[in-house]
Records
---
Amino acid sequence: MLYDLRNHGWSSLSDIQTHNIATFVSDNEHIFQCIDRHFGEKTLRPASYGKGYQLRCPREYESCIFEYSFAYNFEPKAHDITCPIKVIGGDPTVPLSFLPSMDLIGLVGLDYDFVPRTTHFLQLEDPQECANIMLEFLEDRGVA
């Protein structure tokens, strides 16, 4: 399955007024609904321990995949990026976690922050804190 992000590939250009985060979120929600409808729900399943949900693929398994991905990873240079960016990552002190760079020099020049007690699934594990960090970044730049 391929997903051609709006205006970034083979899809035809849409009105520039719709080229924004809200539209991307809407696009992704639509894509996820279609994936669930055609392939079944993904990511979470009912927890085997009490109420709530747990990841379909345990974090120990997922971390193996990310370990292999570093062999094929390329890292953009912070000085090549001309717009303000914020990198929000999982807690580098939790077991099986990793930093967003294999070489710590890659973090120099980046506005990097992490969400305590989370992994690379930080958006699922602590969505409110992820949103708070992002909104603070946008507010500091006068765009939120």
---
Amino acid sequence: MITLEEKLASLPPERQKHIRELTQEMIAQEMTLRSLRKARQMTQVSLAKRMHIGQESVSRIENRTDLHLSTLNKYVEGIGGKLRLVAEFPGSPPVTIRSLAALGDGVIEQDGVAPTQEDSKHPQGFGLEAPKRSIKRNRRRRRLAFRRR
């Protein structure tokens, strides 16, 4: 059996260049999460195993209109990618946020240069566990309030 790399290596250089250019164009297109997963030739089940969640959770993620950045990052890493977050402001060069974990520290870089001092105003990151803890805490508070009545 011949691999994709072997097949590409056997093609003429101009054909290889054309394929690379088409690949970059396809990557540059906007895609839904579902189409990204399918382009990576993954099923919801295989992605769910990589993310350590159930298949139904992958389906819900793909159908959501609003996601936590940490959930999106986990999804993109699950399909073999790396998520980059870029903020664009009028009259300024794009600002790349170094990593999602760095969001919690306020660490950003502009033109690929990280700041010398980290801003520690935001001690918490964007973890997936925070909402679960909040839900449990709220349930406990409601139970206690009900018992006091």
---
Amino acid sequence: MSATMPEEASVSTFARLLRAALVVYWLAMFAASHTPRTPDLLPVEGGDKIVHFSAYGLLALLCALDRQLRGLMSRTSLLRIAGLLAIYGVVDELLQYPIDGRTCDAFDWIADVAGITVGLGLFALQRRLRGRSTTPG
């Protein structure tokens, strides 16, 4: 038996838990944005944009961590995650149009993309600080 067996098992368990958290979080985001409008989470000017920025930033970070833990990180992974989530943000905004109290707002999408960029930037920064490149191994 390998000395790293328990460590590999704990990484595998953590990877499964992270994947479950990612799926639950993404489903919760979808559900929240496709129900009739509720009171603002942040009742301040621009609070809605802060929520969009934060939600998509965390989603991007979770996607990148999931990919890393599954050993699938490559030089283009962050760009692919950013592209996928930016497209998802557009689709999410368009699907809100027919929902009572919701609007399709380009500024929401801009906040989504800004959050994605910062989330992935923080992921890349922590990898660099830990001495790891974006390639596996």
---
Amino acid sequence: MGRAGISKKQVFEAAGALTDEGVSATVQAVRQRIGSGSFSTISAHLADWKAEHAGQVPANIPDMPEKVTLAFAQVWAVAGSVRDTCNLLSLRKSRQELCGNLNRHRSQRLGYVLIQNIPSKSENMPTHVRT
């Protein structure tokens, strides 16, 4: 008779215990904690556990030191500045494209107006040249 496989509950309990200890819940770590199990079965159950626990911060993570918090705040400020600069450059590019389109439209319109206002040949010639 074949041996029984590991359960989803076993994987969830092992992953939770590992996380509480500050250890990353990997397939290998869960397998070592349980003592057996196929990698494919553990991987499938662990994926479900991670999906359920996505975004949760483990309870045993210490607070960040003030220097790290300040450094991160500076990095975040620079990132915001870079984002603003990129937005500004994008707006400038859009403005340049719009101005180019407007100038092309004006040139086309001006050409049309000039063509419409060209006098006929006889109107343009001096009276002594007209035939």
